[in-house]
Specification:
The complex is a heterodimer of chains A (180) and B (366). Chain A has 180 residues and is mainly alpha-helical. Helix content of chain A is 75%, strand content 0%. In chain B, α1 crosses α3, α2 packs across α3 and α7 packs across α8. The chains are: A mainly alpha (180), B alpha+beta (366).
Chain lengths: 180, 366
């Protein structure tokens, strides 16, 4: 009886299967969440971005193994979704300042410094051209030039140019940020 | 040759083999290009420092659970509250249970309930105390049929429950080994022995290895249309348990025990999370307090319940940055602390020691 039960288990098709997508998720999630973190600077927010990216990816590529573009798509989507998040944050900041809403202070001094540094980086990124910000976070979170090129749909030879300009622009944006 | 352009100098830092030999040789001999390279390197280092991410950003098992919850429409609305926020989740306050073997049955029952709320995977990231009493345990035994299990389980076996078939299998029986190195090699679990032991604790008296156990529950037609035919598979272990003897005439008394186990993980091949949760909550005889607390728990995918028998006191602790449950007897003769490390390994330290000694040992491990 036990053998037939096990056989039955193995032959029963799942009623709701994400098995094809799960492998893709497990392979790509670490890169996606790292890219998101590079922009938003907070693990929790990065996880939220990654979740949104994979929800969209599932709608677009329910069987990602059958697509040549799924991998590049989620990485680019991670950068763009995270950049959208911090641009929304920038708009909220402006609204808060105009409404004179006091932002609550953080706890220990070290945390405050870290948080302020992260805020400065996010503000700097949000002021860069979108593609420049994307090339920065993709390259500085482990993607090769070829992978960056694929994710942003540009030629590999252009990545160096974009990256150099973006890094220079980031440095200029951060020059007035003493904590960085 | 002309000077090398800044994009090429930039790529030379990252992917030198992609840059032509001619350009590389030029840079090696050109002070101007080298100076520009230095400036480019500064910018690149600044970007890397400000935009790079730490290695361990998320628990991928848990994230997969959360994603599936959202992909199945019913889970979408619950997700924002489901993610653990680095604190001990709301404890199951209304549950009670006795001692001894009751605790094991309690773990299985509550753990199965927790696992059953998942769509495909249960992968707890932290522990939480569960108050249990003998009366509620009897009710749980009646519901699950766990009370009919023999005291010593065979490596493989099966039994029929009122709502499905339960099977379990393991590669072998638990076995004694002669060294911690052997135990680690067999289980692939790191086992850092404490460097300093409390007064009265002697040398290691026993090292036992428990292979991984896989428990499978296939819901029958009696379980209701929503979950009938679904299969829930729970994997527990492997685990290492180390016992220490006493000193000065107490050599044969176990004064301290330390255990490490891979966290339990569950997967479901059929019913959705909400269907499984509804099944668990609809069991006749389920104590009302437990049912309410399961509802209040939100998504217990991230929680490993630690049963605390009535009569013992429980405190929240922190071991190595992870929330821990510290249990002590009213007289302070014995204590235990349980936590899950960031590597997904559940640790337990307990013995005939007061809570300060137990926590000191735990902090050497965690």
């Amino acid at each position: 009886m036990e053998a037939s039960f096990v056989t039955h288990l193995r032959s029963s098709p799942p009623r709701a299967s994400f098995s094809g997508f799960e492998r893709f998720f497990r392979e790509e999630y670490p890169a996606v969440v790292r890219i998101a973190f590079g922009v938003v600077g907070d693990a929790q927010a990065a996880q939220d971005v990654a979740q949104d990216v994979f929800i969209s990816a599932f709608k677009r590529f329910p069987e990602p193994a059958e697509s040549d573009h799924a991998r590049a798509w989620v990485r680019a989507a991670a950068a763009h979704t995270a950049l959208n998040a911090i641009r929304g944050e920038r708009r909220r900041d402006r609204r808060q300042r105009s409404a004179a809403i006091e932002v609550p202070a953080a706890g220990p001094e070290e945390t405050v410094l870290d948080a302020e540094s992260r805020t400065e980086v996010r503000r700097a990124l949000s002021r860069l051209p979108r593609k420049a910000a994307a090339v920065l976070v993709l390259r500085h979170n482990g993607l090769s030039y070829a992978e960056v090129a694929e994710a942003l749909n540009v030629k590999v030879g252009h990545v160096g140019t974009m990256l150099r300009r973006a890094e220079s622009a980031l440095r200029k944006e951060l020059q007035n940020a003493p904590r960085i | 040759m002309h000077h090398v352009s800044s994009p090429v100098l930039r790529r030379l830092m990252d992917e030198p083999l992609a840059v032509p030999d001619l350009a590389r040789r030029h840079v090696a001999d050109c002070g101007r290009c080298q100076a520009q390279s230095t400036e480019i390197a500064w910018d690149a280092e600044l970007a890397s420092r400000t935009l790079g991410a730490p290695g361990d950003l998320a628990d991928i098992d848990l994230e997969w659970i959360l994603l599936q919850d959202r992909l199945t429409s019913t889970g979408a609305a619950r997700r924002p509250a489901a993610r653990p926020r680095g604190r001990i989740p709301r404890r199951l306050a209304g549950v009670s249970l006795g001692a001894g073997t009751a605790v094991l049955a309690g773990v299985l029952a509550v753990g199965a309930a927790a696992a059953a709320v998942l769509t495909t995977v249960y992968a707890p990231t932290q522990v939480a105390p569960v108050r249990v009493s003998a009366n509620d345990l009897r009710e749980i035994e009646n519901i699950t049929g766990i009370g009919r299990l023999p005291g010593t389980l065979q490596p493989t076996g099966s039994m029929r429950l009122s709502f499905g078939d339960l099977t379990w299998s393991t590669a072998s029986r638990p076995q004694q080994v002669s060294s911690l190195a052997s135990a680690s090699a067999m289980t692939h679990l790191a086992f850092p022995a404490p460097a300093t032991l409390p007064s009265g604790v002697g040398s290691i008296s026993s090292i036992e290895v428990q292979p991984r156990v896989t428990v499978t529950l296939r819901f029958s037609q009696n379980a209701g249309a929503a979950v009938a035919g679904s299969t829930l598979e729970i994997t527990v272990g492997p685990a290492i348990a180390v016992q220490y003897g006493g000193t000065a005439g107490r050599g044969n008394v176990t004064t301290l025990a330390i255990a490490a186990a891979r966290r339990p993980v569950a997967s479901s091949t059929g019913a959705t999370a909400s269907q499984l949760e509804a099944f668990v909550l609809s069991r006749p005889g389920l104590p009302a307090g437990l049912a309410q607390e399961i509802r209040l728990l939100g998504n217990p995918a991230a929680v490993l319940p630690v049963p605390v028998p009535s009569g013992l006191s429980e405190l929240q602790e922190n071991i190595g940055g992870a929330p821990a449950v510290l249990v002590t007897d009213p007289n302070g003769y014995a204590s235990a602390v349980i936590w899950e490390g960031h590597d997904g390994v559940v640790h337990a330290v307990g013995g005939l020691l007061d809570r300060e000694d137990i926590v000191n040992v735990a902090r050497q491990i965690g």
